[in-house]
# Entry
Amino acid sequence: MGNIKAKITGIEAYLPDYILDNHELSTIVDTSDEWIMSRVGIKERRILKGKGVGTSYMAAEAVKKLLKKTNTSPDEVDFVICATISGDMHFPATANIVSDMVGIKNAFSYDLNAACSGYIYALVTASKFVESGDYKKVVVIAADKMSCMTDYTDRTTCVLFGDAGTATLLEPTTEDVGIKDHIFGSDGVGRHYLYLKAGGSQYPASHETIDNNEHYLYQDGQPVFKAAVKSMADVAVEVMKKNNLTSEDIAWLVPHQANLRIIDATARRMHLPPEKVMINIEKYGNTTAATIPLCLWEWEKQLKKGDKLILAAFGGGFTWGSIYVKWGYDPK
# Structure
């Protein structure tokens, strides 16, 4: 059993049709394309429109595409884990809702909340179930409808976020590929700088919380930026050193897409040239848990079996981490 590893065998994504670009944002709030691009590097972001559609809708669409792409029956799926901070409801878990929507009946499922680090936390959690030898097909969802918690009168945050859903299939392998290693960290002091105050048990919804705009995301940008630059770069370098990897060994850095300056700082610390860094923040903005799998999905046709990837993220909490992955298949 000890030689079983979990490898990614397929990845899919769903992006809403509606594109909110910087020009339209500048008609809503006091901002400009130049201001946004110079500070975060975002040109446009996708927004999920429609009454009664939430994170589960995007996640379900991504899972349907994944099952079709990998020729997997819903009945074959053993476990579904969903990384999200914008679940449809407090309960049931969005993973439960998605399983019902796509016909997955033989799996257990639950949600994981680690904000922008959600995908890498969920990927490693899922990999341990696969490595146990008891689970053969595991679906990792990373999806968020950030537009539902974004205050479009706050120019410091409304420019950042977009909506997306992704789904990744993990399966066992005895080959020298898959999820090889990881280093994770967290620091609860981050709760003071990035949070959604109301709607939970501490501050239930009320007229007061609504009047005070406390159902929107709050971010104190400077401490978050400083912590993200340090933690994301440090942990990516740490996982490289732990596995005796040099910049020449790395095929791709797959970073969380929160801010172009954070991505650049991480790549510099790893001594990686720009052509080895996956960046799509300009098109999609920060889709929280979905950013890293969106990159893998977009670059899938360029990835080759055995490619060594470093995945790195930083999120609210604070949470952060990095994974060393050897890609499991050639372009299909």
